[in-house]
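sorry to bug you again but im stuck and you know this stuff better than me. what follows is a protein written twice so to speak, once as letters and once as structure tokens for the fold. mainly i need to know what kind of three dimensional shape the backbone takes. anything you notice is useful, everything is just below:
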Amino acid sequence: MRIVSICPSNTEIVAYLGQTQLLVGVDNYSDYPQEVEKLTKVGPDLSIDMEKVAALKPDLVLASLSVPGMEKNIEGLDEYELPYIILNPNSLYEISEDIRRVGRELGMREEGEQKADEFLEDIDKIRQSSKNVSERPSLYWEWWPKPVFTPGKLNWLNEISELAGGRNLFEDQQVASFQTDWEEVKSRNPDHICMVWVGVKEEKMNPDLVKSRQGWSEIHAVKNNQIHVLEESLFCRPSPRLLKGLRKIQKVMEQK
């Protein structure tokens, strides 16, 4: 079977199922596991080169709608009459369902069920250990600085915040992604600032830029030096690797 993945999180689900040998092409941002870097790259995830995808003669393309603008890829897949499925999870449970679905599509239903159950069991263990936390500091997750985008209640980072012993600063917003501004963030006064700029490597993110924003010197997170530069690949991709990110933010919270 020949698989093309046009979104990093989809590539990581294939890897979680132990089937990277089926991949013949991936989007430019798929960088995990390391062996996928040698595969044919078919373009950035928002502007996939469908001619390249078609040339790989895939039996299945794993598409996504996890980022606004990916709709164009679906139109291209239809135009080239390529076989595809769309994954678009917002919650950890939905990620487990996608693991099951990809397992079925790859002809490994039983293994897919098992891996999805393992994923949920890992989450449940962490949930049990954090459910008795009484004081939950607020976490502001910055997906993008200008315009400001941050996760709302209907996103996996809302769950990640709770599992880590905190709470999402914008948990009152009944959306997956919420556009706000620096003034609103300042008024909510987060205890922690988590920089996870989508598509930006952590070495290119500078906490001093956050500190220099007008009025932000009075925010609890800034005054207490709780600005965390985190790998967006562990927090912004709806894949099983979110568990690694969760364990990382847990350690940060334990040091609060």
Summary: The chain has a mean pLDDT of 95. The two ends are 48 Å apart (CA to CA). Residues 117 and 234 are 20 Å apart (CA to CA). The longest strand covers residues 60-64.
